[in-house]
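#lab-general

N.A. 3:47 PM
ok so I finally got the sequence cleaned up, no stray characters, all 114 residues accounted for. can someone with queue access submit it? mine expired

B.Y. 3:52 PM
send it over

N.A. 3:53 PM
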Amino acid sequence: MADCIFCRIIAGKIPGDFVYQDDRAVVIRDINPQAPKHLLVMPKEHIASLVQTGSGQRDLLGHLIHVANEVARSEGLSERGYRVAVNCGREGGQLVPHIHFHVLGGRQLSGSLG
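B.Y. 4:20 PM
back already:
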């Protein structure tokens, strides 16, 4: 998608602070971090939202969670804990229409969901 900022970062048209990259996913540091460590895990394939996923994306979604766990470990977040969150749609707080998982850590996070 030519107008998707994350697609443009993935394509190298806009700079991004890349932490990880493989054939299906990239991880960048969030430019507006909400915690000392705030990473964005996203597929290279443009998928606008979690709503647009189905059974055909099961492996990709599992891979994204695996990558989130690996980068949390490499960033030193595993021992004390971290949060993985995905916003879905406008009312869910999704600002960029390209599915992405937030990995947040490095301090005590508030707003426990259970």
